[in-house]
Amino acid sequence: MLARADRPARPKKPGNCYHFGGLAGAFLQASAAAVEAHGVSKLSLRSIARDIGVSVSAVYHHFHDKDDLLKALAAAGFGELAARLDQAGARPKALAHLYLRFAVQHPARYRLMYQVFEGGDPRVRRAELEAFERFAGAAKAAIGDRRSSQDAQRLAEAMWAWARGAATRLLAADADAQAPDLEHRIDESLAWLGLVEPCL
Fold this sequence. Notes:
single chain; about 200 residues; mainly alpha; Tetracycline Repressor, domain 2; about 65% helix; globular; disordered N terminus
């Protein structure tokens, strides 16, 4: 269990591991970098301790084992995604662009987030729901008072499922976050969102 000083807290600067501060946050930042550079299989608590410059026992003070660290890393990833999505407000197209750009910029972390999510960890499920709520808010704003809240929920779920599918396709195609045509490729992927285009 995290000490009181290391309980979830949203840092001020984007790019940090959201919902964790102090040493736990440093462990997560180092872990995120290691996952992106070398993959999950090469990640170990000992290597993270070495990267941070602390004893491995300091890592075990915050995370029981590698599995616990990966769950925390996945939850932090969804927290960072939610913070990115906040920049879009209630604009569905902007939400989709930010979601897909996050996935392309952090492919290994994005895959890890959903691998852990499928395991059913409550902490990760809550973090994923927090990110989803950004889409729910945009769907509600798009529909307004014209349709029921159930319709808004269905639209949000469709948008979220589309975003996951589009991200999977982009990652399968090895989309480059620095490619000059990335925005165009995302716009092409957005084609079927004509469903909400008048409300963008």
